[in-house]
Design goal:
By secondary structure, the chain is α/β, with parallel strands linked by helices. It has 17 helices and 11 strands. The structure holds pyridoxal-5'-phosphate (PLP).
């Protein structure tokens, strides 16, 4: 008769041997990453056939699980850590962050209250202060680590709602008699997470006012003032303005000085979505000309985007101390602990109770590189983006759209013949040319991504359909980006050629 397997987990010798196999897999992954296609061409049905199987009744040898992962899973990912991944936002996990994630899982601390993980909570307050200093926010602000900027904006707007004088949604709900209509303002370039927050908070999409942006895709503060004023005249209450530093389409930054002035005049909370833009403030040349985040009542920045830390880690800050806790603090008997002097219970700041020890990842990454090392790496991404911008500007068949301070480059193919024709064309012909350009650029992006050597995404802005090339991966070199530029020119010539020559 077969011996039943022993209970409990692997002995530590077995763990070590298996860990070595996984570390080898990780090294092999990074050593060979440039040989991988950034994306996979597999269809959903085929992938399900490849990965599906019956529920395993008995345990399997670990090396078989690793082998399957190597053969069937890794080839069919979109490789966000690939140095030629330029879609959405270029992110990257540094080795220090990867290893910290392993230790976070090993100790499996739940950092809900100070007592449930004292060093976890304490390190959280330490790294939050460091990061506030790095991005230029108030180091004494309330701050909490959360899983994503979208949730950060939701939490901040919840605090903003609960800070409106005379409104007590927390106790009475939104339907209490006399509750005014609350209005939120964001530019037409704001991230969709603002819309989602308006949905979930009971503000409603109709009360999220989209403020027009200027030719640089920045919120027009004069338009904001007018919109708020007419709402106030109509008896509506301006609850909050969401400004963006680093918009998703073109990396623009709203003018915080002017926007903050409107907020102060009308008593509206200013939330700044700096999920993408915040960390570039580490680079002194950017900081000098950057918007001042200290004007914000609350702000979100994303270390999982720009600070070489694996998903998911976002920092939410509010200089209105106590406002987040005012919305979210609720302590049932079973979570009551003796209040120790200086102890922070992070569950008080958001909806989340169980929370992983995210602070350790940041503590390892920041200490590994130091402020100087992080700054140097961010500056290199900005330098490479500058080289790409210069190359695009020098080419007669391409043009750039927007002008971000951050390494997000928007480009489109605009063949010189069409440009020349556009100059003197009738309004109707111009419309046709614009449609033709959109079609050309969509085809350019599709072909580029199908080839698999690089991966970019797109946006539709006033000019039309543009390719977004985000640069920020810790392993991306100028050669990687110039190889992408070569591909764009080569494919560009093909897609712009007469149909029979394509
Ligand atoms: C990335 C991004 C978000 C969404 O962040 P998540 O962490 O994915 O929720 C929101 N706003 C802006 C401006 C962003 O760049």
């Amino acid at each position: 008769m077969r011996e039943p397997p022993p209970l409990g987990d692997w002995p530590t010798e077995e763990f070590e041997a298996n860990a070595r196999a996984v570390v080898e897999l990780v090294s092999e992954y990074f050593d060979g990453i440039r040989d991988r296609s950034v994306t996979t061409a597999i269809e959903p049905r085929a992938l399900l056939d490849l990965l599906d199987g019956p529920l395993p009744e008995h345990g399997e040898p670990f090396d078989r699980i690793v082998a399957d992962t190597r053969a069937k899973v890794l080839p069919h990912l979109t490789h966000w850590n690939h140095p030629r991944f330029h879609a959405y936002f270029s992110i990257s996990a540094s080795f220090a962050g990867i290893l910290a994630d392993m230790l976070v899982s090993a100790v499996d601390v739940n950092a809900m209250v100070w007592r449930s993980g004292p060093a976890a909570s304490t390190l959280e307050s330490v790294v939050m202060r460091w990061i506030a200093e790095m991005v230029g926010y108030d180091p004494a602000a309330d701050g909490v680590l959360i899983n994503g900027a979208s949730l950060g904006t939701f939490y901040a707007l919840c605090a903003a709602r609960d800070a409106v004088p005379g409104v007590d949604v927390r106790r009475k709900g939104l339907t209490a008699p006399g509750t005014p209509v609350l209005r939120v303002y964001a530019s037409d370039q704001a991230h969709s997470s603002v819309d989602k927050a308006a949905i979930a908070l009971g503000v409603g999409l109709d009360n999220l006012v989209k403020v027009p942006s200027d030719e640089g895709y920045r919120m027009r503060a004069d338009a904001l003032e007018e919109l708020v004023r007419s709402d106030v005249d109509a008896g509506l209450v301006p609850m909050a303005v969401v400004a963006t530093v680093g918009t998703t389409s073109t990396g623009a930054a709203d003018p915080l000085d002017d926007v903050a002035r409107v907020c102060r005049r009308h008593g509206a909370w200013l939330h700044v979505d700096a999920a993408y833009g915040g960390f570039w403030n580490l680079v002194p040349e950017v900081r000098e000309r950057a918007e001042d985040l200290r004007l914000a009542d609350s702000v979100v920045v994303n270390p999982h985007k720009c600070m070489y830390t694996p998903l998911e880690v976002t920092c939410l800050y509010s200089s209105r101390r106590g406002a987040l806790a005012n919305s979210f603090r609720l302590v049932p008997e079973y979570l009551r602990t003796d209040a120790a002097e200086g102890a922070l219970d992070y569950m008080d700041y958001t909806l989340q109770l169980g929370r992983s020890f995210r602070a350790l990842k940041l503590w390892w990454v920041i200490r590994t590189f130091g402020r100087a090392g992080l700054t140097a790496r961010l500056r290199e991404s900005i330098r490479i983006a500058g080289a790409l911008r210069a190359a695009v500007d020098a080419h007669p068949d391409f043009e750039r759209v927007g002008d971000s301070a951050f390494p997000l480059v928007c480009v489109r193919l605009f063949p010189r013949e069409l440009r020349a024709e556009m100059a003197n064309a009738s309004e109707e012909r111009r419309r046709e040319i614009r449609a033709e350009l959109d079609e050309l650029n969509a085809r350019l992006l599709r072909r580029l991504n199908d080839e698999g050597d690089a991966f970019a995404s797109h946006a539709v802005v006033r000019e039309g359909y543009v390719l977004r090339i985000s640069i920020g991966n810790i392993r991306t070199t100028e050669d990687d980006v110039m190889a992408l530029w070569d591909s764009l020119r080569r494919i560009g010539e093909k897609v712009a050629a007469p149909i029979e020559a394509r």
